[in-house]
Amino acid sequence: MPKYERYQDYAIRDGRLIGEFEQMYRDFADPWHQTAHDQFASEKAVGISLLSRLKAMHGIGKVVDLGCGLGHYSSRMAAIGLDVVGIDVSATAIEKARSLYGQSVEFVGGKFEDFAAIEKNRPDVIVMAEITWYVLDHLRSFIDFCKLRLPNTFLLHLLTTYPPRSQQYGTKWFTSLPEIKDYFGMRYLESGEIHYAGGAKTWFLGTWNAGAETAWNATIGAANLSRP
Questions:
Q1: Cα–Cα dist 126/154, whole Å
Q2: Is it the case that residue 206 has pLDDT exceeding 80?
Q3: CA 159, CA 167: separation in Å to the nearest integer?
Q4: Which residues does 180 contact at the CB level (< 8 Å), separation at least 6?
């Protein structure tokens, strides 16, 4: 018998962060409907396209997928030829991810705020897909760590935002894509959002490296100049 009726209540309930992710994965086989919906999510497809472009034009090879869950998105990154390490706080999620995709992705247990584990892998890209609402208390420290220790690492960030007055938790940090970008304070190579009835699916690809931004813009400019 599940502890709570809804899997969402293990994460955030009544405007408070609960964070019982291990128990959630024990009680629910597919929280957030990852298996059914991830492969069709528009913002996830955008993320794969951006990673493919980074690989083809900028030589990236190593990705750390924070909060990888059951590993579906990590597997899609590996399928385009990237070396992927998926990290999740839930041991049950990691065990399931290994059983599904362990041949193509390295999955390890760990907390978001264990920055030493991120640095150990020396990623070219860090992916944060739909985890930011659950790590807000550590987000400023994460940003400062990345700027100091991994200044050449790209960040691919995907997050759902919600209509005004429909959200209780997290609003003192940000509520929209412009506010998210302002909080992270990066150089943004691309960003956007897809609106749907319940809010917006947002994404950005960012860097702290001015040279990487220049190189990205140069490839975009060359592609535009080649068109009639």
A1: 6
A2: yes
A3: 14
A4: 132, 157, 159, 161, 174, 202, 204
Contacts of 135 (CB under 8 A, 6+ apart): 67, 112, 113, 142
* Structure tokens, 169: 């938790």
Enumerate the H helices of 102-227 as residue ranges. 115-121, 136-149, 177-184, 210-225
Cβ burial of 226 (10 Å; 0-12, 13-18, 19+) is exposed
Helical ranges in 65-194 per DSSP H: 72-79, 91-101, 115-121, 136-149, 177-184
CB 165 within 8 A of CB 150: no
Q: Per DSSP, what are the bridge partners of residue 161?
A: 200
pLDDT in tens, 116-174: 999 999 999 999 999 999 999 999 999 999 999 999 999 999 999 999 888 999 999 99
Residue type, 24: M
The token pair that represents 10 in the structure block: 């293990």
**Domains defined for the chain, CATH in brackets:** 34-225 (3.40.50.150)
pTM (two decimals): 0.95
Nearest to 53 by CA among 131, 124, 158: 124
**DSSP secondary-structure letter at 170?**
S
